Amino acid sequence: MGSSGFPHVTIAMPAFNEGNYVRRTVVSLLAETDYPSFDILVLDDASSDGCCERLPRDSRVSVIRREDRFHGVAGAKKIVVEAAKGEYIFCVDAHVRPERPDWLRRLIEQAQRFDGMVMCAPIWVPLDGETWRIKTERPKCLTKIRPIYNTGWWARADPTAERQEVSALRGIGKLFSKKAYEAIGGFDELLHYGGEETDVSIRAWMCGLRVFYVPSVVMGHVFKSKSQFPRSHAAECNIRMWVAYKTLGREAFEAVVENNRKAMHVKGGWGDRSFRSALQQFQDMKPEYDRRRAEFWKHVKRPAEEILERFGITLWGWQPDPSFNLAR
Q1: CB burial class (10 A; 0-12, 13-18, 19+) of residue 153?
Q2: pLDDT band at 18, cuts 50/70/90?
Q3: Cα distance between residue 118 and residue 123, in whole Å
Q4: Mean pLDDT, to the nearest integer, of 205-219?
Q5: Distance, first Cα to last Cα, the chain
Q6: pLDDT tens digit string along 111-120?
Q7: Taking Cα atoms as reference points, which of 59, 50, 52, 65 lies closest to residue 25?
Q8: Integer Cα distance of 45 and 77 in angstroms
Q9: How many Å apart are CA 171 and CA 92, to the nearest integer?
Q10: What is the mean pLDDT of the chain?
Q11: Quick one: pLDDT at residue 157?
C-alpha cells in the first residue's frame, strides 16, 4: 500500500524510437497526475534515437534499457510490466497525455470495487503530436476492434455511465492489478506483430475478470500513421490464427484458415505466398501453442455458452454445430 492508504501504481511504458514523445509523455504524467503514490517505469527497447535519455530527473522515474530489441511489442510490454513494483499497473504507449489530473484516482476507484480483478481503460481521443493538445471530439464507439478479434459487438460510448463493460479493450493503455495480470498469464510474447492488447483483455474476460471503460476518464493519444512494428500479411494472418485457436479452439482456427484461403482470390487479399507462410508459421509453433492453450484454459471461468454468445456466433459468419466442444 502506498501513500495515505492508496495502492501504489506503476505506469509501465515501453518505448522504441519515440523521438520527443516519450519525454513529453513523462512530463505530462508527472505534472498532470494528482494521485499520491505512483512511479513511471520506461523500457527503452534498444532505441537508436536517444529518446529515453532526455527524461526528467525525478525520483519517480526510472528506465530499463535493452541493448538488443525484443522481438515484438508484446514481449517489451511483458518485460516492463513484470519489472513494475506497483500493486497496480497502468501499461501505456509512450505518446499520451491525461485530460484531467484525477484520471488515475478515478481508474483506481473503479478497480478497487472489484478487488483489483479488473482490466479497465480510459476513453482514448486524438492527441496532436505537434501542439500536444487533446482534441475535443469523443468516440461514438468504445472499442473499435476489427471483427478478426471476435469481440462480437461495438459498445456505444456513454459519457454519463460510471463504467461500461465490454469483452475486449482496444490498445493504447489499460489498468490492472498485478494479481489480475498473473491470473491470466500476462502478455503473450508470441504475438510479435500486434494484437497483444486485444488478446490480453479477451483472456481477462474469459477468466472472469471485469473488463470495462471508465467514461469519465479521458486521455489523449497520438495516433500514428505508421506502426513501429510493421507486419506483413502473413504475420497478420498468423495473429488471427493464434488468437482464434487460443480462445475458441480447433474449429475456430479452421474457420480462420478457410476464411483466409478464400481471401487469396480477392483483390487486396492475403495472396497465396502470405497465406501458406502464415499457415506454416502456425504449424511450426503448434506444440508450443497447444501447451499455452492448455495452460490458459485451466483458468477460464466464463461458461462456454456465454463465450460462444459473445465471440463464436459472429466469428467470420461461423456457427458451431451442436456437438462443438469449446475446450478442444
Answers
A1: middle
A2: very high
A3: 16
A4: 93
A5: 42
A6: 999 999 999 9
A7: 52
A8: 10
A9: 9
A10: 84
A11: 74
- Amino acid letter, residue 9: V
Q: How far apart are CA 270 and CA 260, in angstroms?
A: 7
Residue 303 CA, chain-centre distance (Å), reads 23
Find, among 12, 9, 1, 211, the residue nearest to 114 by Cα: 211
- What is the DSSP secondary structure assignment for residue 161, as one 8-state letter? -
Distance CA 61, CA 75 (A): 21
Residue 218 φ/ψ, nearest 5 degrees? -120, 135
Give the number of other Cβ atoms within 10 Å of residue 221's Cβ. 22
Residue where the block lists cell 472472469: 208
- Number of residues written out for the chain: 328
Report d(CA 312, CA 328) in Å as an integer.
14
Closest CA to 163 of 219, 204, 202, 106: 106
- Give the pLDDT mean for 293-316: 78
For the chain, which domains are there?
3-221 (3.90.550.10), 233-314 (no CATH)
The three cell numbers locating residue 221: 493519444
How many Cβ atoms sit within 10 Å of the Cβ of residue 83? 13
Nearest CA to 150 among 319, 23, 17? 319
**Helix/strand/coil (H/E/C) assignment for every residue in 172-238:** CEEEEEHHHHHHHCCCCCCCCCCCHHHHHHHHHHHCCCEEEEEEEEEEEECCCCCCCCCCCHHHHHH
Listed residue (239, 242, 212, 209) closest to 227, CA to CA: 239
In contact, 256 and 241? CB cutoff 8 Å: yes
Q: What is the largest CA-CA distance in the chain?
A: 62
CA dihedral 45, 283, 202, 70 (to 10 degrees): 0
